[in-house]
Design goal:
Blueprint lengths: L11 E4 L4 E4 L11 E5 L2 E5 L12 E5 L4 E5 L10 E5 L2 E5 L14 E5 L2
Antiparallel strand pairs: 1-2, 3-4, 4-5, 5-6, 7-8, 8-9
């Protein structure tokens, strides 16, 4: 098994009030190489590598108040190893690789409106 297919569904949540970490609910889609963005009390996780030799297009959000995951509109084309940021009501995802293992680098900027 190559490293690009060793995906996990685990994550931890930090509580600054107690200065401690706690295991959160498993991600709906196990993956690696994602972009994460914090927006209005939710952590959005997009992309990842690799399933059936393809990158992940999924975007899912973890609600910090309820501790639950929800699925959102996926990216048109999967990618991994990229960055994300929230500006206003939009999430922006830049660059990344569209092929497993770092191939097919992208220069695209994707925008998701969360109004």
């Amino acid at each position: 098994m190559d490293a690009s297919s060793q995906n996990v569904d685990l994550h931890d949540v930090y509580n600054p009030a107690t200065n401690s970490w706690q295991a959160g609910a498993p991600l709906p889609t196990a993956r690696s190489g994602v972009a994460g963005v914090l927006y209005q009390g939710k952590i959005f996780v997009a992309g990842g590598e690799c399933r059936d030799k393809k990158t992940y297009p999924e975007m899912e959000g973890f609600d910090l108040k309820t501790g639950r995951w929800a699925s959102y509109t996926p990216m048109v084309k999967g990618r991994h190893g990229f960055g994300g940021v929230a500006v206003g009501r939009n999430l922006y995802y830049a660059g990344g690789a569209v092929e497993c293992g770092g191939g097919g680098r992208s220069n695209e900027l994707l925008m998701f409106n969360l109004s």
